[in-house]
Design a protein that fits this description.
Blueprint lengths: L1 H9 L6 E10 L5 H10 L12 E9 L2 E9 L7 H10 L2 E7 L3 H18 L24 E6 L11 H11 L3 E3 L6 H21 L2 H4 L5 H5 L2 E3 L23
Parallel strand pairs: 1-3, 1-4, 2-7, 4-5, 5-6
Antiparallel strand pairs: 2-3
The structure holds guanosine-5'-diphosphate and magnesium ion.
Magnesium ion binds next to helix 2.
């Protein structure tokens, strides 16, 4: 049945509705929350509670598809390895963020890429649960990732050159974009859209029934914020103002 639907869509007659889970990873203060909030509200709000971990829900139309983003904005990567593993297993696609002003955050990118790869290839202590779809005859395909070099507006504080980023990207075979969440909504949204395109391609290649996994207790505990639908669909919606409830004074 799903094959049939996909065929129809390719002919342009049916819009697709997809839920896509994005996990934003990266060291503290690289701008993960700024990116998520910028993408969803179009605003750059300077300061957030750095310990806040949230799943943002946001609907947008991309190339005629209705996309339900669930965006996990992580905080505190130093925590229990099992927790981070569970979050990584939850995701369909990954934004791995560093700041061009912070060499240490750049050095962390490689470790995070390997971790995502490892867990989605069925590795990690959780065992088989990570395999969803990975056990197919095609073997393991790395999950879609995008490296994001944020804060490119801070040219005078730059400690990681564009070339450094490019060579890491080539080495890891993971695409990279330099952005400024502060200066550009287009660049920020562009990162989410590019990652979505890769996720959509991978979802088309493997039936969704193999990919959906049970929602774990941990993931249910993470607070969710619904942005209010850009498409006007029904649902419990927070207003944009309620984002402020989550921000420090
Ligand atoms: P997180 O810990 O990764 O979630 O980082 P935050 O989103 O809380 O951002 C950390 C700090 O970096 C905050 O003071 C933000 O205002 C700032 N920041 C985030 N993105 C940018 C950017 O693109 N340019 C500049 N100049 N500052 C940014
Ligand atoms: Mg944050």
């Amino acid at each position: 049945m799903s094959t049939n639907r996909r065929t129809l869509r390719r002919s342009g007659s049916l819009p697709t509705s997809r839920t896509v889970r994005i996990v934003i990873l990266g060291q503290a203060a690289v701008g993960k929350t700024a990116m998520a909030v910028r993408f969803i509200t179009k605003r750059f709000i300077g300061e957030y509670d750095p310990t806040l971990e949230t799943i943002y829900r946001h609907e947008v139309a991309i190339n005629g598809d209705v996309v339900h983003f669930e965006i996990l904005d992580t905080a505190g990567q130093e925590e229990d390895a099992l927790l981070i593993e569970e979050k990584i297993r939850w995701g369909d696609g990954f934004l791995i963020v560093y700041s061009v002003t912070d060499r240490c955050s750049f050095d962390e990118v490689m470790r995070l890429c390997f971790l995502v790869n490892h867990i989605h290839s069925g590795g990690g202590s959780g065992g088989g649960a990570g395999r969803r779809g990975g056990g197919s005859s095609n073997g393991h395909e790395p999950p879609p990732m995008l490296i994001v070099a944020n804060k490119k507006d801070l040219e005078y504080d730059r400690m990681v050159t564009a070339e450094d980023g490019e060579s890491l990207s080539r080495g890891l075979k993971v695409p990279l974009r330099e952005i400024s969440a502060r200066d550009s909504w287009e660049e920020t949204a562009g990162a989410f859209h590019a990652l979505y395109a890769d996720v959509a391609q991978q979802l088309d290649a493997s039936p969704p029934s193999f990919r959906r996994r049970a929602v774990s207790k941990l993931m249910e505990k993470i607070p969710r914020i619904h942005s209010g639908s850009a498409l006007g669909a029904a649902g419990r919606s927070f207003s944009f103002g309620s984002f402020r409830d989550f921000l420090p004074e």
